[in-house]
């Protein structure tokens, strides 16, 4: 009886783990790629007066902040 319960619990945990890790992979892909999609257009529009190095630095910082923000939004929902 106890082995059967243990087997069911292990199977449920395995299913949960597969679903959870799949969602983590989707989330990681989304947060990595989404902010990088329109970087050149944002730089052309808002950072045209800055040098390329400064514009790249500002965009890298903004993408890092956006990624952290998206992480907290998904985790807290």
UniProtKB/TrEMBL annotation:
Stretches that traverse the bilayer: 12-33, 53-74
Keywords of this entry: Membrane, Transmembrane, Transmembrane helix
Descriptive protein name: Major facilitator superfamily (MFS) profile domain-containing protein
Species annotation: marine sediment metagenome
């Amino acid at each position: 009886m106890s082995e059967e319960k243990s087997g069911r619990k292990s199977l449920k945990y395995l299913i949960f783990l597969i679903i959870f890790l799949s969602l983590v992979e989707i989330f990681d892909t989304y947060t990595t790629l989404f902010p990088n999609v329109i970087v050149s257009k944002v730089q052309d529009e808002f950072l045209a007066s800055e040098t390329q190095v400064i514009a790249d630095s500002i965009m890298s910082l903004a993408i890092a902040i956006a990624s952290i923000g998206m992480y907290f939004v998904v985790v807290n929902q």
